[in-house]
Design brief:
Length: 575
């Protein structure tokens, strides 16, 4: 079928109330049915809110398909409803290939660069739950981006003609599915990465997928279930009441990697009582054969007091690293790490992991640390050294500085960290993509919080009120432990039906249904691993489940594998 242009659109970012927050977006626009000039940056007068490719293209026949799926009156969707600059008459994601050169009309020549990566703004625009995004990706009806090679006028009824194509290159829909599938191999992604026509934006997503595959492989290697004996082989005093403990496996076997921000569950024999505590891993050194935890001695705290009294050579039992609070080390947006007191420990691992990345490609990062004063400021010298060497934005907030400490020299501000103070510290960051500089305001930064509960709650609420979407926080204890506090279910038999696997799940292993499957080499689909994207949603065929995170849009007989655990002794799920 001949492809041709049906409509065009031009838009600039404006504030829209999206899911209760005022956010800038260019997705809301009106269709145009007259000629539009496309220069080297796309349609003249157009300005994307947060993507960097020149032109987004979508197909009219996709409108018909999705209106039927969503039970929406077709006439309620004008052209450009999906935020596209060019509306075509017919779909071509299954045949168009990355790098294809296309002539549109008599003048303009454009190149296919990458599939659309849909976000929550699209689901909002469609009036659907965010879980539909995985369905859109699976369908292949996603749209694609193009860059302008030769400027020119484009108008309705102009032919959309492929003038150069490489049959060895993957299709637009094929790339999209590879990015989402858990079956994609490193080899496949490296082959895609070698494409000569891949833009920096596309390369960013390819690298993100490669990192995810490599990380999962590292996390699985040497991982164990249950308890394992470790020896305290070094103790370092960071402050008068915070000690760091270096732990090595007593069996002298290898230890698995972990995600920066995760914690260790530690079991101690305190007098006649066995107690379990969770302490964050405070050092990220993937090549080391040991773990480090840093513990503040708490008045009347059994676990922290026992550890502070322990000597080198003492053995403790720990579980493999776990936890849902960790840095997304593939994030291309600026990162803000905010800690209060001993909440600095997971942040330190995050900072170290981030700074291991290539300086030319890693995102800007802010380190905001709230403590009482200099005497109670753990890891101060470590952080300052990284600032001088690697260029981190830092801000120390002292709530009770001594008379010998001066603002501007020992610390940057005093009092408590409010949201208004926080926003005054941050600045719009300019990030270069594709030869363009994109201004990223703080509302699009990724925020990580760890500290006293009142501090976390105030900052979380305040940031959400200001339209920040990505705010993550640590509860100091694992979500699984909290949600199972009154649960007597210690063990369950889980059947992954289509995979023909029957596995034993144990409460003390502290693993989700996704992690259990991965431990036994199953590969369920997933993406975010945080209960947001719904990519890992499956049907519950028998039994009950519970979620360790707050989730939305999940039916009574459904479960998100990434944060779901059994709530009955027998569970059958459709994986």
């Amino acid at each position: 079928m001949e492809n041709y242009v049906v409509a065009l659109s031009v838009s600039k970012p404006k504030l829209e109330n999206i899911n209760g927050k005022d956010l800038k977006t260019s997705i809301v626009r009106e269709p145009l049915y007259h000629p539009v000039y496309f220069d080297q940056t796309g349609p003249v007068g157009n300005k994307p809110a947060d993507h960097i490719e020149d032109v987004f293209v979508y197909s009219e026949n996709h409108y018909d398909y999705w209106c039927e799926v969503f039970n929406i009156e077709r006439s309620s969707w004008k052209h450009a409803h999906w935020g596209e600059n060019i509306t075509l008459n017919h779909a071509c994601e299954e045949t168009l290939r990355i790098g294809d050169i296309v002539r549109i009309g008599n003048e303009a020549v454009l190149q296919v660069t990458f599939p659309r990566i849909p976000c929550f703004k699209l689901s909002w625009r469609l009036g659907q739950a965010v879980s539909v995004l995985s369905d859109i990706i699976d369908s292949g009806r996603i749209g694609f981006y193009m860059n302008v090679i030769e400027p020119g006028i484009i108008e309705p009824n102009d032919a959309f003609t492929v003038i150069k194509s490489n049959p060895q290159h993957p299709t637009v829909a094929g790339i999209s599915r590879m990015l989402q599938s858990s079956d994609t191999s490193i080899g496949q992604m490296l082959e895609v990465k070698s494409l000569p026509d891949l833009t920096p934006w596309g390369l960013t997503w390819i690298n993100k997928k490669i990192h995810t595959i490599e990380e999962l492989s590292l996390l699985k290697e040497y991982r164990w279930l249950g308890w394992r004996s470790f020896t305290i082989n070094n103790i370092v005093a960071e402050t008068h009441d915070i000690y760091s403990f270096y732990l090595s496996p007593s069996d002298i076997q290898a230890v698995p990697a972990f995600r920066p921000g995760q914690h260790l569950a530690v079991r101690l024999q305190v007098e006649n009582e066995v107690i379990e505590r969770r302490w964050s891993l405070s050092e990220y050194c993937p090549d080391k054969m040991q773990y480090r935890i840093s513990i503040k001695k708490v008045d009347n705290g059994l676990g922290s007091s026992w550890m502070h009294a322990a000597k080198e050579g003492v053995q403790v039992e720990i579980k493999a690293p776990s936890g849902d609070f960790y840095l997304d080390n593939t994030d291309i947006m600026p990162i803000v790490l905010i800690s209060g007191g001993i909440g600095v420990t997971p942040m330190l691992a995050m900072l170290q992991a981030h700074l291991l990345k290539d300086k030319n490609t890693r995102a800007p990062i802010y380190w905001i640390q709230c403590v009482l004063n200099k005497d109670n400021h753990p890891f101060r010298d470590d952080v300052l050294a990284k600032v001088e060497e690697l260029g981190v934005h830092i801000h120390f907030v002292y709530s009770g500085p001594t008379e010998n400490e001066t603002i501007g020299h020992d610390y940057h501000s005093c009092g408590l960290l409010s949201v208004d103070k926080l926003m005054s510290i941050l600045k719009t960051e300019n990030i270069k993509f594709n030869g363009k500089t994109i201004a990223i305001p703080p509302a699009f930064f990724s925020f990580y919080l760890c500290g006293p509960k009142p501090m976390q709650q105030a900052l979380y609420s305040g940031l959400k009120e200001k339209g920040v979407e990505k705010v993550f926080f640590e509860e100091f204890v694992s979500a699984l432990a909290m949600n199972n506090a009154d649960n007597t279910l210690d063990v369950a038999t889980v059947t992954y039906k289509n995979a023909k696997k029957q596995l034993s799940w144990h409460l003390e292993d502290d693993v989700s249904l996704l992690e259990l499957a991965e431990f036994y080499d199953l590969k369920p689909q997933y993406q975010c691993r945080s209960g947001q994207c719904h990519r890992c949603k499956v049907k519950v065929l028998k039994g009950k489940v519970r979620h360790t995170l707050s989730v939305e849009g999940v039916g009574e007989n459904e479960v998100l594998l990434c944060c779901g655990v059994p709530d009955s002794s027998q569970l059958i799920i459709d994986v």
